[in-house]
Amino acid sequence: MNLDSRQKIVATLAVIVAVMMVGSYVFVLSTEAEEYEGAVDAMGNRLTFDSVPDTIVSTAPSVTESIHALGYESKLVGVSQNCDYPQSVSDRIDDEELKAVGPYNKPNKEEIMDLEADVVFITNTADGTEVYNHLKNAEEKVVLLHQEETIQDIYLNLIVIAKSMQDEDSTADVQQDMAQTFNEVSERAADGGNPKVMLNLGFGWGMESVFSFGSNTFGDDVVQMVNGTNAVEASGFNVITEEMLGTDKGNPDIIIAMVQDVEFTQSDYDYYMSQLQGDPMWSNTTAVQNEDVYFFYDRAASISQRASVDLTDFAMLSLMYTQPQLFEDFTPPKYIGNDYADLFDGHW
């Protein structure tokens, strides 16, 4: 990544704040907190809150993690059943202090309405939009967040959440910390090579159902940040085909696979590798032939797939796996889970 690209990442916060102030997304913060012109959501609707929201429902893990990072976790009264981080959220669900309101991709609107929360944050999916419209028609205070396709979209939703909570300081601090980490990653990556990288999901569903982060995704942002080349040129998330892998650019040097397993052992690794080595579509790739295939599971998989503030950890981890020569006495483990942060000790 060149200097201009790195500067764009670092300057993202300033750019977004400027857009939010002078573009179509206009926020007006009341110093009296009596009536607040709230966040403009993905539908372009501006909400009005009579007071600072005291109770929150989050319908997705990425949203819950952002709410935690911004300091509002104690206000949560409902979350998706997929929300498993931080541990305090899982504990509160187990203790029935928090209500699970259905899976992130299909929130239960009746259970959400029963909670009578001051604000509900909905992800911008097909079912999410339907739930949003239902709640809005029922005059619930609901915010449809923007689709989190890129890192800039993560920043944007942090602003929307914080503005909905009538708070500017927390989001600025979080975004500054994120930008600082991303800048550190890209600066270190500039001294490395330029491997072709494929970030894959869907292992366990069959080799024909593996898909990957293409261009215009936060995964692609991370690949560029670590000075890699994304082996998938197509935009968005794409099922990997034999045609893709058959091109020189589509043949990855390194594969990082995110698997849903809560536990992952050597036998799991051996199984997945045997599947790849025995599949005619994957067996000829450089990554498989050189066994440069790595599996992220449990929390390591979560930070890789969720558009939240912990994407900074994924960027750091990705650099260690794609450019291990930049780290003294480091050989990346073939699979890593909850203990991924242990790899940072002595290297960051």
List keywords for this structure.
alpha/beta; Rossmann fold; 2 domains; seven-stranded mixed beta sheet; five-stranded parallel beta sheet; 14 helices; 14 strands; 40% helix; globular
Notes on the structure:
- This protein folds into two domains: 3-176, 3-Layer(aba) Sandwich (Rossmann fold); 191-344, Rossmann fold, CATH 3.40.50.
- Helices cover 40% and strands 14% of the residues.
- It has 14 helices and 14 strands.
- Helix 4 links the parallel strand 4 (76-79) and strand 5 (99-100).
- The longest helix has 21 residues, at 169-189.
- The chain is globular.
Topology readout:
Blueprint lengths: L2 H8 L1 H11 L13 E5 L5 E4 L6 E3 L2 H10 L5 E4 L7 H8 L4 E2 L8 H7 L3 E4 L3 H12 L4 E3 L6 H14 L4 H21 L6 E6 L9 E3 L4 H8 L3 E2 L6 E3 L2 H4 L8 E5 L7 H12 L8 H4 L3 E4 L1 H8 L5 H12 L12 E2 L12
Parallel strand pairs: 3-4, 3-6, 4-5, 6-7, 8-10, 8-12, 12-13, 13-14
Antiparallel strand pairs: 1-2, 8-9, 9-11
